[in-house]
Amino acid sequence: MESKVHRPRVVIVTVPCPGHIIPSTQLAKYLLSMSIDVCCYSTGINYPTVENQLEEKFGDVRIRFRPLITNSEFVSPGKELTDNVSWMQGPSDGEMAVRLEEIVRNLTPPPVCIISDLLAGWSQDVADKFRIPRHVLYTMPASALLFSFACFPSLISPQVAPEHPPGTWNSMVVTTHAFYDYMMRNARRLQEASFILVNTFEDLEGRFLDLMRSEVIGKPNVQKILSIGPLIRSSNIEMVSAHSKPSAREEHESFAEVMHWLDAREQSSVLYVSFGSLLTVTETQIHELAHGLEICGRPFLWVYRVPNTPQILPADASTEDSLSEGLPPGFLERIQGRGKLIRGWAPQEKILAHKSVGAFMSHCGWNSSLEALWSGKPLVAWPLAVEQRLTARYFADMQLAVEVRKNDDSIVESAEVVQAISLLMEEREETGIHSKFDRMQELAHMAVDDGGSSRSNLQVLIDSIKNQPNPLT
Ligand SMILES: O=c1ccn([C@@H]2O[C@H](COP(=O)(O)OP(=O)(O)O[C@H]3O[C@H](CO)[C@@H](O)[C@H](O)[C@H]3O)[C@@H](O)[C@H]2O)c(=O)[nH]1
């Protein structure tokens, strides 16, 4: 057996959002399966209720992202969070870098590289200090990466960035200057990375990847942008063997109840509705959606988040009370027996794999979109923020989704909800979506299988890690 002493070690850094922790964890599991040690850290606020849901095991190894800063150090009386992203980024890039530097200095054996999230650009400074490569794990689609490069020539040749968010980007991304600044700061560090590992696959987004390889990087044959996805829980090749027993989460009563509810429904009859782990919609929008679900007459499973909670914050996995808050009066009674709402955290990857689920109404977060593809559940695309509109439009163009239309007040009305659902679930043959989707599902599986494009790219990463001399030893 290979001695542990000779195993190369990698430091992985991410931000404390499920949409980033989940793909980072899958990469960690893959590296472990390739006899590479991993040490995992996260920035910002540590939400134990969320993280308990996200902890995974590889054999005896628990994969958990340790916070670089404790909550009490970060937020205390007099040190409140000042904007809607600081919970994600931590106190400052410099502070995060100092803390990671300290860790790297004391690790034995030292890491041969840092793999860090697209939103942890500051970790490039730490990698430079120790003269080791930094690879970026890009958890959004390749279309968003191309969009960043195309919108901001300054990312390619580092000149001054525009002072104000340009219109398109601003309307897509969000809202505040703090968020814009955060995205820009991190995007600027992309070019310095050794590899940009994109959680996608060639058959889905090859056109964007190729454009970047030739137009942005200017060297189509240089391996810098590597597609390595779908990097999702269900695609993790090692997952099956590592999980011989159900996890505590799967044994949880509410998990079992959801699965029993689905078991009792007809094949492909259920619409699954979820807008990811971070975003909420307004009460007016909730009412339109609820009304639409009520009149469409189909079974549905809705992961419900109360409106007007802070707009961007991880779902509190412990919250299961006050299910009716924000819903139209009498809604729960009227949908009894046909619709089910879940508050808190849903076992999404298992729900999507269930045979009773026929379609997925989603905000088009990239992980959800990949999970839908993986499990063959076509999308009602309902983008909310960040890069999600790019995905919704692309999937609709590729005939992988039906995109909802918003009215002039940016509301999706109940009639539109009904129409989109019926187009996707009743007029299956006419839309052509299902056959396109089946083919893309097949290609997604092939990408990570032996000889697939993502698997080969992962091998490029593994080879580089294993051949990387360690300047610290
Ligand atoms: O109840 C829940 C809610 C979420 N999830 C999982 O959490 C992840 C959520 O990720 P994603 O679908 O990408 O949505 P967000 O949480 O909104 O992700 C953020 O991060 C993504 C990756 O960078 C971006 O694509 C999104 O726009 C951004 O909002 C997925 O794996 C879901 O399966 C669950 O398992 N249960």
Automatic annotation (TrEMBL):
Domain Glycosyltransferase N-terminal, chain residue ranges per copy: 112-232
SUPFAM superfamilies: UDP-Glycosyltransferase/glycogen phosphorylase (SSF53756)
Matches recorded under Pfam families: Glyco_transf_N, UDPGT
EC number: 2.4.1.-
GO molecular function: UDP-glycosyltransferase activity
Annotated InterPro entries: Glyco_transf_N, UDP_glucos_trans, UDP_glycos_trans_CS
Keyword vocabulary terms for this entry: Glycosyltransferase, Transferase
Matches recorded under PANTHER family: UDP-GLYCOSYLTRANSFERASE 72B1, UDP-RHAMNOSE:RHAMNOSYLTRANSFERASE 1
Family designation: Belongs to the UDP-glycosyltransferase family.
The protein's name in its UniProt record: Glycosyltransferase
Species, as recorded: Physcomitrium patens (Spreading-leaved earth moss)
Gene behind the chain: LOC112283184
